[in-house]
Specification:
four-stranded antiparallel β-sheet; alpha+beta
Length: about 500
């Protein structure tokens, strides 16, 4: 196991930082409860460890079980002094990211996208949505009944990958949808492209609607001045933040942030109701505790942690570029349509110069060197680095594994890299939306073999995963090109989210 990234405990924090950010009130309250060894006449049934499988306790640690307590525990999230430790923790999170209010989410950023759709639905039934949104944004349309006007992202002219949407495209979509009550965009993308969020916010506000930003991949942007400005700082109204991805809270934990000055466009009490609606009544104390602790870590030490990671990744990118047949997606793409800035904590490697696919390369890296990647595609692999890890070590391990695999390929072929060097294979065009997503999801439907599905109206999402961006939405007419693309993705090692048949042998379609 790599050593924990060292930080200076003597630091007073970044200039101007609220000293209270050194505290983790909810996390500390959980620890204090565990230390008291209370009589646990409440759930969960493991009772702090005695009721759990000993092997599970050994694997997870006794303290994790001791701190796994239910909600509505006196002195932690209800009763006692006001504000409670839980309320204080969320208040500190809002301060760390510069939000008016923050909510801890225990069902991931997906929960945040559901909340956004439900909150906007209080004001109307139409919204503008970036078409390459995460599948949870489409789920929000189904739950809320909102009708979308989709706006296409910019397609990279060389690589044929989707970037962000431009302010001009958003303006046109809102002008074409005068009754829209909000707009939802994505920044950063899976490949690290960052949108002109300030320009997007100005456009949305000019149309008198709030801007929702799915910033799932950008929770760390607030903590270093050399990173692109984060969405709240650019005027976004509601920001979905997948805190576990880069900042490092436990998997499935996330946050939702309401922007300062957004009260005229979004009622925080409406947002709060929506959070409760799609949240378990038994939220995990461990997930929330991890959000509190990692917020403290990011606020107090994020600057130095990110500095080390960015330096290490600069060296890693240089080393990858030096391998015959490989290149990287980086700041050279800034300025292309839909790329306002670039997030350097994403390492996207272009494998077009090799004679194998990204799926095959990822498999070789895993089998030969136990190097496990975030994403593999036909022409690209993506590695993700965390805020607080010693990034140089996994970077060197990745580079060494890439060198070995590429050298073996060259020896096998008797020559150097021999890939196509062509453009990334673009996904097929999105199908025509002929029904609203909710109407299609609940419409009378039947199951048909995939061979007979082309031309029918889908009742379910089909999203090749990762990155979980739907290729098909409920209400879209299915095309043979799209179905062939998804089947090829599955054959190459991808997976499918949203379909009732994850192997895509059959599909649920509207009865016509």
């Amino acid at each position: 196991m790599a050593e924990r990234q060292p930080v200076s405990e003597e630091r007073t924090g970044p200039p101007g930082l609220d000293p209270a950010q050194r505290e983790a009130p909810y996390f500390d309250a959980l620890a204090a409860y565990a230390r008291r060894s209370p009589a646990r006449l409440h759930v969960p049934g493991h009772k702090g460890g005695p009721g759990a499988d000993p092997a599970l306790v050994e694997a997870f640690g006794e303290q994790a079980f001791e701190m796994d307590i239910p909600s509505l525990t006196y002195g932690i999230d209800i009763g006692g002094d006001e504000p409670t430790p839980f309320e204080r923790a969320q208040h500190l999170a809002a301060g760390a990211w510069g939000a008016r209010r923050a909510w801890f989410l225990i069902n991931g950023a997906s929960q945040g996208n559901l909340v956004a759709g439900l909150a906007l639905a209080h004001s109307g039934d139409r919204m503008v949505v970036q078409r390459n949104a995460h599948s949870s944004t489409i789920d929000a349309l189904i739950l809320s009944g909102m009708t979308p006007t989709f706006v296409a992202p910019e397609l990279d002219p060389e690589l044929q990958i989707a970037h962000c949407i431009t302010p001009e495209a958003l303006d046109a979509a809102l002008a074409a949808t005068p009754d829209a009550v909000g707009a939802s965009v994505v920044s950063p993308t899976y490949f690290g492209a960052v949108a002109d969020v300030r320009g997007l916010a100005e456009v949305a506000h000019a149309h008198r609607v709030p801007l929702v930003v799915d910033e799932s991949w950008g929770a760390h942007l607030a903590f270093h001045e050399r990173l692109p400005a984060h969405a709240l700082a650019c005027g976004a109204d509601l920001v979905v933040s997948s805190t576990h991805k880069i900042v490092g809270s436990l998997t499935q934990s996330a946050m939702l942030h309401l922007g300062i000055g957004s009260e005229e466009r979004l009622d925080e009490n409406v947002v709060d109701r929506a959070v409760t609606l799609v949240e378990s009544t038994s939220p995990s104390a461990l997930l929330s505790g991890s959000l509190d602790a990692q917020r403290r870590y990011a606020a107090w030490h994020g600057q130095e942690l990110l500095e080390e990671t960015m330096r290490a990744l600069e060296l890693t990118r240089d080393a990858v570029r030096a391998i015959d047949g490989l290149d990287v997606l980086d700041e050279r793409f800034v300025g292309r349509p839909g790329v306002f800035a670039y997030d350097p904590l994403r390492l996207a490697i272009d494998v077009r110069g090799l004679d194998i696919t990204g799926y095959e390369l990822a498999t070789l890296l895993r089998e030969r060197a136990d190097v496990n990647l975030e994403l593999a595609g036909e022409n690209v692999i993506v590695a993700v680095f965390g805020m607080g890890e010693r990034a140089a070590d996994p970077g060197r391990r990745l580079v060494a594994a890439l060198r070995d695999v590429v050298a073996d390929l060259a020896a096998r072929d008797g020559s150097g890299a021999s890939g196509s060097g062509g453009a990334f294979a673009p996904p097929p065009p999105w199908g025509e939306l002929v029904m609203g997503p909710r109407d299609a999801f609940f419409a009378p439907q039947e199951v048909v073999p995939v061979e007979r599905a082309a031309g029918r109206i889908a009742t379910e999402s089909l999203a090749a995963y990762p990155p979980g961006i739907p290729n098909v939405l409920p209400g879209e007419r299915l095309t043979a090109e799209t179905l062939d693309y998804i089947q090829q993705t599955l054959e190459l090692g991808g997976s499918l989210r949203g379909a009732s048949d994850r192997r895509l042998r059959t599909l649920r379609v509207v009865v016509e």
